[in-house]
């Protein structure tokens, strides 16, 4: 286990699908212990590909890393099985509220503990913790997860990941398709875990307004390339970010170049 303040390091990452379709080009970012880092960008920007690479799940979609490295707490991600990454504390929540629909809510959560290799006592303790974090699931613990609402299914997906006792929780579009009140509830819970327990979170979000409200830092992807990085406060106050991602009325002609600290020539291309 590394003692570096950097928990996850993505260095000059490039990836393709089907050996031909370029998805990422020279993406770099660092997630420090205890922070919430957001990856922002439009559809097709490379957010999901980046998170799948972080979780070593690209091959399931016929994707592969062609350049660069990903290191999680000293581990070479590309050389570590996804199941071993989970046991090491890197736990993903995939896009689309993936639950075992024919299993009960509680059985879904228990599966997360089994994936980590938890003991029965640990699973029982973690179950009560998740039900405390998401009280609405308590009433649904015996029903099939497929019969739960979309918001409840997302809570189940996040709760199952928490059963793995993550040190880095990787979330792909957690707000997608959910009512604003549900999104706020889930993000409030995530912020509580970050502030009170030091849980490190990496999330990809198309809803930049939500992401920048809860994240401490962010990386902007454009066409598979990281073009801007900074604190959430810095990004919220930039006219170009407000224009492209926050719905500002700033005129397009006033949008300036977006500089990556490691590449002063990079810009977000105008749509």
**Main sheet?**
6 strands, mixed
Shape: globular
Query: In DSSP terms, counting alpha (H) and pi (I) runs of 4 or more, how many helices?
Result: 10
Q: Which second-level CATH architecture of the largest domain applies? A: 3-Layer(aba) Sandwich
Structural Rg: 18 Å
| CATH fold label of the largest domain | Rossmann fold
Give unreliable regions as ranges. Answer: 249-271
SSE class: alpha/beta
Compute the average pLDDT: 89
Task: Describe the strand arrangement of the main beta sheet, using strand numbers.
Answer: 6-7-8-3-9-10
Q: Could you state the oligomeric state of the chains shown? A: single chain
Terminal Cα separation, in Å? Answer: 44 Å
Spell out the helices and strands N to C: EEEHEEHEHHHHEHEHEEHH
The structural domain count equals 2
| β-strand amount | 25-35%
Q: What share of the residues lie within helices?
A: 25-40%
Per DSSP E runs of 2 or more residues, the count of β-strands stands at 10
CATH class membership of the largest domain: Alpha Beta
What is the fourth-level CATH superfamily of the largest domain?
Answer: P-loop containing nucleotide triphosphate hydrolases
Structure overview:
The chain has 271 residues and is of the alpha/beta class. It has helices at residues 47-54, 82-88, 105-116, 120-133, 135-138, 150-162, 180-197, 208-214, 232-236, 239-245, and strands spanning 6-17, 21-32, 36-40, 63-72, 75-76, 90-93, 168-172, 200-205, 217-222, 225-231. The protein has two domains: 1-89 and 166-271, Rossmann fold (3-Layer(aba) Sandwich); 99-164, no CATH class. The chain is 35% helix and 25% strand. β1 (6-17) and β2 (21-32) form a beta hairpin. α3 (105-116) packs parallel to α6 (150-162). Mean pLDDT is 89; it is low at 249-271.
């Amino acid at each position: 286990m590394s003692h570096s303040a950097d928990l996850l390091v993505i260095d000059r990452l490039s990836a393709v699908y089907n050996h031909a379709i370029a998805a990422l080009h020279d993406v770099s970012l660092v997630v420090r212990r205890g922070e919430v880092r957001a990856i922002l960008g439009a559809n097709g920007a490379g957010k999901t590909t980046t998170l799948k690479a972080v979780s070593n799940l690209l091959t399931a979609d016929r994707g592969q890393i062609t350049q660069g490295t990903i290191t999680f707490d000293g581990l070479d991600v590309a050389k570590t099985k996804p199941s071993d990454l989970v046991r090491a504390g890197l736990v993903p929540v995939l896009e689309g509220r993936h639950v075992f629909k024919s299993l009960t809510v509680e059985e879904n959560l228990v599966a997360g503990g089994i994936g980590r290799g938890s003991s029965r006592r640990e699973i029982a303790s973690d179950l009560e913790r998740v039900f405390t974090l998401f009280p609405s699931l308590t009433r649904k613990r015996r029903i099939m997860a497929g019969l739960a609402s979309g918001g409840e299914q997302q809570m189940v997906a996040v709760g199952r990941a928490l059963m793995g006792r993550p040190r880095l929780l990787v979330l792909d579009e957690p707000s997608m398709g959910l009512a604003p009140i549900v999104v706020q509830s889930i993000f409030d819970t995530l912020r509580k875990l970050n502030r009170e327990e030091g849980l490190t979170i990496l999330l990809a979000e198309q809803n930049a307004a939500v992401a920048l409200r809860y994240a401490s830092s962010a990386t902007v992807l454009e066409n598979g390339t990281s073009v801007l990085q900074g604190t959430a406060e810095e990004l919220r106050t930039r006219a170009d970010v407000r224009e492209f991602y926050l719905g500002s009325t700033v005129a397009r002609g006033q949008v300036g170049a977006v500089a990556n600290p490691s590449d002063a020539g990079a810009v977000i291309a105008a749509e």
